[in-house]
Every structure is written in C-alpha cells, then in structure tokens.
Design a protein that fits this description.
The protein has helices at residues 16-28, 43-60, 70-75, 90-94, 110-117, 142-152, 170-174, 185-189, 193-201, 205-213, and strands at residues 7-10, 33-36, 63-67, 80-83, 102-107, 123-126, 159-162, 180-183. With 214 residues, it is α/β, with parallel strands linked by helices. The protein has a single domain, classed as TIM Barrel (Alpha-Beta Barrel), CATH 3.20.20.70. It has an 8-stranded parallel beta barrel with strand order 1-2-3-4-5-6-7-8, surrounded by 4 helices. Helix 1 (16-28) runs parallel beside helix 2 (43-60). It is globular and about 40 Å long.
Length: 214
C-alpha cells in the first residue's frame, strides 16, 4: 500500500535557482515530500532542474514529485508526478511510469473529484481553499466546500487541500475529512513552519513507523 505524506511543499521562487534553494531548505527543515513546480519553462531546462532537485531530495530521503511533466518524472526517477486538470490523463500516464511512482490529480469541484478518482490516482489535491494569488482562477472552496465535497463522495484515496493554507487552518481543515495539505507561500516565507505543520498534521512517517513497530 502506497503511503502519501500529509504535508507537501510546493516549490516557489522568483528564479529556477531560488526554487532549488527552497527545496534544499525544505528538505533541511524536515519536509517529507516536495513538488517541483515551475511554469513557462522549456522541457530541457526543467529536466536539468529536476535532476538537481532529485539529487537534493535523495540526500535527505525526501520524496520528489514533478508537476505536470510525467516523462521528466520517469526519466529522473522522481517519486511521482502531479497532474493538473488539463494535463495528460492519469490512466495514460500510468503506462509510462515505473510501478512504484505515484500520480496525483487536481480537483476544484465535486465533478472534478468524481472524474479524477475514477482514473485511479494515488491522491487528489482539492482546492483552492482560499485565493492567494492571481493563478487561482477557480472558485474558492473553504471549509464548507471541503465538507460538502467529501461528504458527497466518500473515498479512501488521500485528499490533499491546497490554496493559501496556513498553520492556523489545519485543525479545522482536518475536521472536514481532508487527509493533508500542500503548502507553498507560508513555508517559503518561513521554513520553520514545516515542523509546525507536521506536528499539527501528525505527518511524520518516521514517527508513525516507530510507533508501529514498538
């Protein structure tokens, strides 16, 4: 059974170099999973960055997810790929990945959720929780939206909340049935918040394994 960490750090930075620096900081601060997410960049340059990110994360045994580009995820042997709603269908992508690589999908509504779950993804990102940038063009869901969607469609597939989530939101978000959260800005501004998020989410798989085997 594939385990999905409860805290995902989505890389952020005003340059490719800054993305890598922030991934390094996230790993140093205890992140269990980071997603390399850069838009408007050539595949050649992204491949180079993905290889560097893979080297960084490997040193910390941190999982690496590549946003959108499943061929690059396969080539650098990342832990998986995260697909947006307009990206290649997960069932097609599955045929191109190693059996151990995971696939995440994105949902902004109940219908999105139904569609993506049927495509056998390993986890689904649901949001945005709140609007925190001009990129968030979809309707914000908030606590009521999360609750309504998760109650309408019960699933064992982990659901990761995203979109402007802060440490103060975690307790209430977990009560909706959300499994974990993907965070970018809050962590990028202060990497010490990784420990706070992890404590609130009880996200450390290392601790979970220790307790399991005692």
């Amino acid at each position: 059974m594939i385990t999905i960490p409860k805290l995902h750090y989505i890389s952020q930075g005003n340059s490719s170099k800054k993305h890598l620096e922030n991934i390094q900081k996230a790993c140093t601060s205890g992140a269990e999973l980071v997603q390399l997410r850069l838009k408007n960049i050539s595949e050649k340059k992204l491949l180079k960055l993905a290889k560097e990110a893979r080297e960084i994360t490997s040193n910390f045994q941190t999982r690496l997810i590549i946003n959108d580009h499943y061929k690059i995820a396969q080539e650098v042997k990342a832990d998986g790929v995260h697909l947006g709603k307009t990206d290649t269908c997960p069932t097609v992508v599955r045929k191109h990945l190693y059996t151990w690589q995971i696939i995440g999908g994105t949902a902004n509504s109940l219908q999105d959720f139904k569609t993506i779950i049927d495509k056998n993804v390993d986890y689904t990102s649901l949001g945005p929780f709140r609007c925190n940038s001009q990129e968030n063009l979809s309707k914000t869901l908030g606590l009521n939206g999360y609750t309504a969607i998760l109650e309408a469609l019960e699933t064992d597939t982990p659901v990761i909340g995203f979109g402007g989530i802060t440490t103060e939101d975690i307790t209430n978000i977990l009560e909706t049935g959300i499994s974990g959260v993907a965070v970018s800005e809050e962590i990028s501004q202060n990497f010490n918040t990784i420990r706070i998020f992890s404590d609130l989410l009880n996200a450390s798989s290392t601790e979970e394994q220790r307790y399991t085997f005692e």
